[in-house]
């Protein structure tokens, strides 16, 4: 409980919330361009999400998922904070949970953390490569029921599980 009390007139009802849900950009942010970040922010504004959460992956997570080398976590996180400062008008948050853990974090643990931390409904904004990788995990069939996907990139060959669940994802508008 906050401990702060306010007085309201009798019969007062708070106005209904006009913004709902969270758009979560889950990526290593090694190869993500500013245009992709701006596209995600535009989608978050257009669809009236409460906020856009940028979730950078730790080096160990990226290594386990794709075997690619990436810059240290703090450098990628600093780049995201700089981009967020340039776009102060939009509601953007950089999630540093993996930086605090300093180890491999499975996508299931990250999604559970986000589901507890941020308001539902949850939308995951993924690149095509990461969406195909996510679909290859065993936990995909459980999580696709909980989250919706927005996939950024050119339409290419998709994982069969993504093709089975076309009603749960969509392409990002490339404008």
In short:
The protein has 175 residues and is an alpha/beta fold. The protein has helices spanning 34-46, 59-66, 73-86, 97-101, 107-117, 128-135, 140-143, 160-164, and strands at residues 22-27, 51-56, 92-94, 122-127, 147-152, 169-171. A 6-stranded parallel sheet has the order 3-2-1-4-5-6.
Describe the structure.
This is Nicotinic acid mononucleotide adenylyltransferase. This protein is α/β, with parallel strands linked by helices and 175 residues long. It has one domain (22-171): HUPs (Rossmann fold), CATH 3.40.50.620. Helices cover 39% and strands 17% of the residues. The chain contains eight helices and six strands. It has helices at residues 34-46, 59-66, 73-86, 97-101, 107-117, 128-135, 140-143, 160-164, and strands spanning 22-27, 51-56, 92-94, 122-127, 147-152, 169-171. The protein has a six-stranded parallel beta sheet with strand order 3-2-1-4-5-6. Strand 5 (147-152), helix 8 and strand 6 form a beta-alpha-beta unit. It is globular, with a radius of gyration of 17 Å. 29% of the residues are buried.
Q: Which strand order does the major sheet show?
A: 3-2-1-4-5-6
Shape assignment: globular
At the first level of CATH, the class is Alpha Beta
Largest sheet: 6 strands, parallel
Averaged pLDDT: 88
Q: Name the quaternary structure.
A: single chain
Corresponding CATH architecture: 3-Layer(aba) Sandwich
Structural class estimated from helices and strands: alpha/beta
* Total helical segments: 8
What is the strand content? 15-25%
CATH topology: Rossmann fold
